[in-house]
Protein 1
Amino acid sequence: MTKKEQDLEIVLKKFINKIVKLIEDINKPNEKLFMSHENFNHETFFQRLDNAVSLISSNATKFSITAKPPCNPKDVIEICRMFDPSVENLVNIIESVPLSHGANFNREIRDISKDLLRSVATLLNGHMKNPINLNSINSFQGPLVDTGITWYNCNVLMKISKNNLESCSKKIKITLDFIGDSINEIKEASENPNNDYDDFDDDLDSDNEDKDDDNSKRELTENEKSLLENSLNMFKMSNFLLKKILTRTMKQYVNDNSIEANKWLDDVAELAGKTFSEATDDLACSSMSYPLDAESISEECNNLLEKASNLIDVCIKVSDETNTKWYNTCRDQFKKYIAAIDSCKTE
């Protein structure tokens, strides 16, 4: 390498290492950098964020054009000097968001920001003679000579949730999507109850599909029909519950950004998120394993009831009399379906 190329290599390496350090900082929120809850203004924050992201997008484009071989190392170094502070400015803005404005809101901002920083690091790395190993920041390896992924991440960051209510709503909507998929899969599996429902096995056996004799497909037993019906009812009730929370109970916090409101929203998102979707997934697996086993389905239904009850209890705390009655009725319906499933155990 020439002396100028060596100088560029040093600048790029220093810039990349700085980004790696910034990602580590984002992973460890520092309360000393937070704005106070009262002084944090969403409108001002998003104005600053949009300006910072636009500048990064512009600098990434300039870098990509300037660094395209054959390049003038001096010009690339000059672009890096402009690029560097724009990245640091973004992180300073992200670090200012207090956790009191919602754990989910904060996590969404930080996760997407890290994606953007990773893409910038990879863009820079792709123009080094001796690329750095970026495994420590979970970045993909190899050259990235265009700004496509960086542009994409800039666009995603500019479209993040505007508050914790939106962030928490997204988590619940993901669970609703899982429930919808599970209902469709269970119905599909019930149409061919000869064997355990397994997509992978189905793919392996796809060459033999034309050998199947439709007349050989067995009918569901009356016991299985009852198990199937009530399992689906558990999913439908879960769907009703989550939609009720989204469209009614959570909506009362549209204009409430208090610490208490954000804490409640985070609690609901936690209960209605991963653990709830995992419970529905476990029930779906039991409801697609033929011949259907009442013991197994009952166990998973009770697990789902436990998750639903925890969610209902949190919602009742902020509900009026009418909605409290609805939530208790919802819980009773879950129990009714489980009782119907339990009655199949002795049949």
Note: Residues 56 and 86 are 6 Å apart (CA to CA).
Protein 2
Amino acid sequence: MESIFRKVRIKFLYVGTASALMSVVLLYAGYRITAFLYRAGLHTADSSYVKLINWIINHIGKLPAAMLTGSALFLAIFFWRSGKIRSDLEELCREHAEAALMVEAANDEAEEDEQSDIPAVYVHSFKGLH
């Protein structure tokens, strides 16, 4: 059972690391594209894009805005990439619960077979002792 948990931990570590790297790459690409569009003159001085970028830089700051955007990207990518692992774990837990119910039912049947020569009054009183 420990090996299953180790595999799951390693998968989540991989997904977390990959999500962090992907968010850094996307954040850098977004920064470069924004800087190019801002400097390229593909806008007018009163366009909403320029006003929005100026407002973010002046009121929030470049670094906090990048940190917020990077965190949001990381969370979105992490939840997207870990969905498969989560569904696998849910299926594993469901199968484990079904197997536990089957074992419990088999144990109950075995106990009833062992206690068949005991009168019914005593059988019910022993079942509460488990």
Note: The chain has two domains: 1-81, 83-130.
